[in-house]
Amino acid sequence: MARLSFFAFLPRLCVWIVLVLMAVSPRTARAGSAAPVAISGQDVNGHAVAVNGKGHYTVVMYTNPDLEDASRKMTLALDPYRSRSDFTLVRVVDLRGNVPPEMRSVVRGEIRKEQVNESARLKKAGVAAGNQAPIIPDFSGSTLNALGWDSVYDAVHLVVYDTHGHEIKRLESVTDAKQMTRVVDSIL
């Protein structure tokens, strides 16, 4: 009889031993410590941009042509943070299916003009030229999809990454710049 009860208990004992070994194993990944999947894109000049790069907090903004005014207000609200060495703003413009291939250079040219204007504005505000916010015109959706933005949205969306490239906050349908700056203030 004692033999039968031991064998009946054996599966539970094995599960318990495995759980204990997993808890004390040095190779066990702790929650949040796994290396983040690198997300990248190409800016308007064709340079690679690490969207969730390491060494700084990164706010990634979803925008599209219909959200130009709203995203401009959000960008202006982030100006006070842009002189910080531990802060980066990356804007991803959703252009999936909106721009024929022969017109993409024209769109890139318009974005470059906007960046020149923004650079002049930031210079007057005392923000160093090295803290420019890259703009990724995403014609294929590769960067947008990697960020989890698989639809065309009617409001600005944000994702915030920590200094290790881990996502720490996601805001959907942001319509108020104060909402966004409160989140950034709470993180920085």
Description:
There is one protein chain. By secondary structure, this protein is of the alpha/beta class. It has a single domain, classed as Glutaredoxin (3-Layer(aba) Sandwich), CATH 3.40.30.10. The protein has helices at 2-24, 68-77, 104-125, 142-146, 177-187, and strands at 40-42, 48-50, 57-63, 87-94, 135-138, 156-161, 167-174. It has a 5-stranded mixed β-sheet with strand order 5-4-3-6-7. The longest helix is centred in the N-terminal third of the chain and has 23 residues, at 2-24. It is globular, with a radius of gyration of 23 Å. It starts with a helix and ends with a helix.
List its salient traits.
188 residues, alpha/beta, Glutaredoxin, 5-stranded mixed beta sheet, two-stranded antiparallel ribbon, 7 strands, 38% helix, 21% strand, globular
